[in-house]
Design goal:
By secondary structure, the chain is an all-alpha fold. 69% of the residues lie in helices and 0% in strands.
Length: 108
């Protein structure tokens, strides 16, 4: 059996258009989540509604990043690197916020 040759393409594929929305949404969700957690730690868990608003906004931005990331995979012949990074970040944040919410409801 002959040795298989790996084809290398030197044509650069453009980024998927929706991935250019996915990654900034994921970064914004990460920043908002960091703000929410840092304010909550600073106030020793006795935060007001503004801290909850930062957390809910982070969760919603992460959900939107997941949606745009999923839609970006429908684009053909594109580079999906930004979508993958954004979706991983947003997915981790969604799981984190669901865990925090469940622990808050059950443990509270």
């Amino acid at each position: 059996m002959g040795r298989q040759r790996h084809k290398i393409s030197y044509i650069r594929k453009p980024f998927a258009k929706k991935s250019l929305v996915c990654l900034p949404l994921a970064v914004a969700a990460l920043v908002m989540g960091g703000i929410s957690v840092s304010l909550s730690v600073r106030l020793q868990g006795q935060g007001e509604l503004n801290i909850a608003a930062w957390g809910v906004s982070s969760f919603l931005f992460a959900l939107m990043a997941l949606a745009y990331g999923g839609l970006s995979f429908l684009e053909k012949e594109k580079n999906y690197l930004l979508s993958r990074i954004g979706m991983w970040t947003a997915g981790v944040l969604v799981v984190l916020w669901i865990c925090v919410t469940v622990v808050g409801v059950i443990g509270g």
